[in-house]
Amino acid sequence: MKYIVAIIKPHKVDEVKKALEAVEVNLMTVSGVLGQGRQKGRTEIYRGAKESGGLLKKVKLEIGVNEDFVGPTIKAITDAAFTGEIGDGKIFVFDLHDVVRIGTGERGEDAIN
Amino acid sequence: MNAGDTSWVLVCTALVFIMTPGVAFFYGGMARRKNILSILTQCFAIICIMSLQWVLIGYSLSFGPDTGYGIIGGFEWFGLNGVGQEPSTIYGSTIPHLVFMIFQAMFAIITPALMVGAFAGRMKFSALVLFTLLWSTFVYDPVAHWVWGAGGWLGGIGALDFAGGIVVHVSSGISALIVAIMIGKRLGYKKQAFAPHNLPITFLGGALLWIGWFGFNAGSALEAGGLAAHAFVATNTAAAAAGIAWAFMEWKMDGAPTVLGIVSGAIAGLVAITPACGFVSILSSIPIGLIAGIICYLAVARLKPLLGYDDSLDVFGVHGIGGIWGTLATGIFAAVAINNGGADGLLLGNAKLLVIQTVYLVVCMAYASVVTWILYKIVDALVGMRVDAESELIGLDLTQHNESAYTVLE
To answer: Is the N or C terminus of chain B more exposed, i.e. has fewer CB atoms within 10 Å?
Structure first.
């Protein structure tokens, strides 16, 4: 099992979600986050005072998948979130030790499906 | 007694009232999210405290019969003794004395509320309550008496202040600067970002201030007539010119016009036209507004960083500088043709008025500064002015009021 964390551009959320659903990945946690990569944030100016280090708004997806779904999940996100411009984001993949479905007590791969 | 005048001044009183919640929103949006409730609470508490102070002693000290030398009113009108439904023999001869009293109460309320922006996010609530009470009694009440009270010495030498350029804006602006310097900078000032947390709320506050200012300035005519109309139009015109001026300044200097800038500019213009609106022509209100927008922008964006003080939400830069300019501008642009109770200014060949206005400024600023310094020391010794570092970092909403403005979960 893998735990996939993807940081993407906010306006790509719907496309990525549809692409994931198309490969039958339906479970995900989505949050709004701030960050900066190579492109840095935009400078904000209030009453003449530059507040540099302004971070960019991004969206973070967290998805637990069984091994068979790792490739399709990464491909779906990469295809749908791609613009070719700087700041498209990143995908991090972690080994996942265990999963528990709270409602039924199922463990491991059964809990993800 | 005149029903039209009475109803107009009562409506204006309600308009001036809304300025204090307005300034709370204006500052609250500029504050950090952990401190917005402390700003709202402080402003609302000031409404409550000053309403009582005014009825009990403030009105008598400010407008009560002079005790000699034009320095202060006495306690003759303590608890509104003798202030009733009949017109006063001195103030507003066509409206009930109570109407004049409650109209003035709103000015006494908003003046200390203007100051809270300077020390946002670091003053103890107990200190704020005590300081407000002392400052109003020992700074606002005497200064109001000098200028507007019957027998007040500054009114006696011919100083012109139609709606409170000095009494309200310069006195609060300079005092706020003194407090900001004495209480010290916010932790992390210049090392971390201090971005406004909710500018739409600031916009709302700015809009409420502009609306309320019609009552503030046009109501100061104390009658529903031509002078009120004149003050109303001058007020709107100056605010518009100043909003444009500030926005163009930052467009040129910083790269873009901003909502914070255009609203701040309008407020600066409203401040500057306050002493002048019943004495200068409508067209004069345009340069008064334009210059207010330019110099207040420079004070806030250039002078403050140069001098290094942390007047957090620019009370001095907007109300102090705007009020100083408006008071001098009254000495430049005033015309008897507009208001025969006024005087001709510099442009009409009378340099004396500008001299009087300058004396007026210097005396009031010196008095407010010194007394504010003393009162700060007293309150600091009694209850301590500044919260401890941990409370400041957590935020005043939680540490002073046990509340949060925004929930993260549900």
So the answer is: C
Helices A67-81 and A13-22: crossing angle in degrees, nearest 10, is 140
Q: What is the pLDDT of residue B77?
A: 96
The CA R_g of chain B, rounded to the nearest whole Å, is: 20
Q: Say whether A46 and B314 touch across the interface (CB within 8 A).
A: no
Strand (E) or helix (H) holding A49 = strand A49-51
Contact A55, A35 (CB under 8 A): yes
3-state helix, strand, coil in chain B (%, to 5): 70, 0, 30
Q: What is the pLDDT of residues B100-151, one digit of tens each?
A: 999 999 999 999 999 999 999 999 999 999 999 999 999 999 999 999 999 9
Q: Give the phi and the psi of residue A91 in degrees, each rounded to 5.
A: -125, 130
The more confidently predicted of residues B56 and A50 is: B56
E strand or H helix that includes residue B390 = helix B389-394
Give the start-to-end residue ranges of the domains of chain A: 2-112
Q: How far apart are the C-alpha atoms of B42 and B37, rounded to whole Å?
A: 8
ipTM of the complex: 0.81
3.10.290.10, 3.40.50.10420, 3.20.20.70, 3.30.70.120: CATH of A2-112: 3.30.70.120
Q: Which CATH class is domain B3-401?
A: mainly alpha
Tokens 């280090």 correspond to A53
Q: Smallest Cβ distance to B301: which of A44, A48, A52?
A: A48
A-chain CB neighbours of B261 within 8 Å are: 47
- Cα separation of B102 and B18, whole Å? 14
- Could A48 and B297 be called an inter-chain contact, meaning their C-beta atoms sit closer than 8 Å? yes
Q: What is the pLDDT along chain A (113 residues), one digit of tens a residue?
A: 999 999 999 999 999 999 999 999 999 999 999 888 776 777 788 898 887 666 888 999 999 999 999 999 999 999 999 998 888 999 999 999 999 999 999 999 998 87
| Stretch B236-250: mean pLDDT | 98
Residue A47 has its nearest CB partner, among B193, B255, B264, at B264
Q: Which amino acid is at B217?
A: N
Structure tokens at B288: 């008064």
- Answer left, alpha or beta for residue B136, where phi above 0 means left and psi between -120 and 50 means alpha: alpha
CA atoms within 13 A on the CB side of B221: 29
Residue B27, Cβ neighbours under 10 Å: how many?
A: 29
* Locus of tokens 């250039």: B302
